[in-house]
């Protein structure tokens, strides 16, 4: 009986070690080099709330292409099919912020939410653009929603993700 218990214990230890090694392998193969999000209190984003993302490029390779996405989590109380963003960024020039307006669809014409999720929460990756860091410095991206609502309901989290392109 004791040898059966030891054999079972050894098998469990091997399974745990295999799972740990698999997790390490997956995380090492991840191309993501920056991800930060802002969680919005009570799932409301006020029109005058600017979400600022400070990006330290010391861990990035220079002159390599990266994908820049906005990561958005919304719940089913979000009242619209789309969302507008007003974006300011200083990727090209250190002291000059470029202004962009960008619209993304969050649901199709039948009301089916895009992205992944279940129940009442959905996560969507919104492709913003490709970027190349030309120098080591601090970069900033600022987001404001461009909807008419003073308090935009149903937005849980907003983030920025930068991933290497190979």
**Main sheet specs:** 5 strands, antiparallel
Strand content: over 45%
Give the assembly state of these chains: single chain
| Class inferred from helices and paired strands | alpha+beta
| Helix run count | 1
Q: In which order are the strands of the major sheet placed?
A: 1-11-4-8-7
* Amino-to-carboxy terminus distance: 54 Å
Given the C-alpha coordinates, what overall shape results?
globular
Ranges where pLDDT stays below 50 over 5 or more residues in a row are 21-29
The Cα radius of gyration reads 21 Å
**Helix fraction bin:** 10-25%
Instruction: Give the helices and strands as they follow along the chain.
Output: HEEEEEEEEEEE
Average pLDDT over all residues: 86
What's the total number of strands?
11
Describe the structure.
- The strands form 3 sheets. Strands 1-11-4-8-7 form a 5-stranded antiparallel β-sheet, with no helix packed on it.
- The chain is built from 1 helix and 11 strands; from the N terminus they run αβββββββββββ.
- Mean pLDDT is 86; it is low at 21-29.
- By secondary structure, the protein is of the alpha+beta class.
- Strand 7 (116-118) and strand 8 form a beta hairpin.
Describe, in short, the structure shown.
This protein has 166 residues and is of the alpha+beta class. 16% of the residues lie in helices and 48% in strands.
């Amino acid at each position: 009986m004791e040898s059966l218990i030891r054999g079972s214990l050894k098998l469990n230890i091997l399974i745990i070690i295999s799972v740990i090694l698999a997790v390490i392998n997956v995380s090492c193969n991840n191309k993501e080099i920056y991800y930060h999000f802002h969680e919005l209190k009570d799932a409301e984003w006020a029109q005058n709330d600017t979400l600022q993302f400070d990006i330290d490029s010391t861990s990035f390779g220079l002159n390599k292409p990266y994908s820049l996405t906005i990561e958005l989590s919304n719940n089913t109380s979000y009242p619209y099919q789309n969302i507008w963003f007003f974006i300011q960024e200083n990727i090209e020039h250190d002291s000059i912020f470029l202004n962009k307006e960008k619209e993304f669809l969050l649901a199709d014409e039948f009301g089916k939410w895009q992205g992944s999720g279940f129940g009442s929460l959905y996560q969507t990756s919104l492709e913003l653009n490709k970027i190349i860091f030309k120098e080591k410095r601090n970069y900033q991206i600022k987001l404001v929603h461009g909807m008419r609502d003073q308090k935009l309901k149903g937005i849980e989290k907003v983030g920025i993700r930068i991933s290497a392109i190979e």
